[in-house]
Fold:
Amino acid sequence: MPFYGLGVALLLGLLIGLERGWKDREQAEGQRVAGIRTFALIGLLGGVCGLLAQNLNAVVLAVAFVALAVVLGWAHAVSQQHNTDVGITGVIAGLLTFTFGALAMLGEAALAATGAVITVLLLGMKPTLHAWVRRLEKQELHATLKLLLISVVILPLLPNEGFGPWQALNPYKIWWMVVLIAAISFVGYFATRIIGARKGIMVTGLFAGLASSTAVTLHLARLARHQPGPCNIYAAGILLAWATMFPRMLIVSSLFSQPLALALLVPAGVMTVVAYTGAWLFWRQSKHQAHSDQARLSNPFELKPALIFAALLAAIMLLSHVLREQFGDTGTYLLAAASGIADVDAITLSLADMAGNDLRIETAALALLIAAFMNTFVKTLLAIGIGGSQLGRRAGAAGMAIIIAGMAGWWLFH
Structure:
């Protein structure tokens, strides 16, 4: 209905105009190029032109858009005589308002509303976005571009079919998994930078563990060796980092196989609860303030490590078929144990991709738990060997409790 479309167009103009008017609320009347009324009228103008385009010709819409661009551009140029702000955000916002009004009239009200809300959010977040840009380091910008390169450019070009023995090597799936792991580390890195920067060991363990719980273990263990006093805090930070591994396994598994994620839910959930409980107990026992040292995580994405991960993942996918051919399920368990020494992400992605097709759900779930047990055991040894006896006793007891809880969770529910 025309009235509905015009109403939506007017409301969207009012929404964007509200943000623009609030931003320039300190300026005197008549000094603003466009305020809440002007943006509301621009939205309504877009709706009217959309209606005319439906009844007459689409050229009407194009001509009106160009005419509005000329008017807004001229008004902006005139305002520069009294204002040193050379930004054209207001002009672009006006053109978008017109476009959203036209979309609403042309039957795309939901799309127009979504675009208008996103526009308002971007306009209102100017200080936050500019602060992020100022804090962005060169290596982080390069990391962002590299992540976009491997995900937006390279991934669509790869063939989505199996190659090699047993058709085990699918370039698209292997690279998609690389993108997934890189993105998880990327998010974890910036979570540490934005939320956890210099906020203490607990925040370090919680957020830096998203990128690498092993890196957090090594860092906090070294701090514990040099500053042995607050071992309870270091143990709590380490356990928080360890606890992130189990939900991450569930999330990654669920992306490929919901039944596998359900099979892992109880044991992984029990291990998560035990790890968080241990962290909470150590935190309560601590009488020292958390240190401001932050895990010195390296840049979250480099091309060379990504390629190494792809090679490792391909080797694991191939070896999983070889070992299963030779030893059946036992070969899969051996592979999981060997992979868990260094990392659980590669084996999680590999087995999750095969679960339910080339591999039984129960076998894949047990193999992933074996990898998690082995990885937890290795990190426990690192904490004991590097952190000294005080941290070692705490990490050793917690690590054994996590592994025993996971085994009990599996045996009781399978």
In short: The longest helix spans residues 258-285.
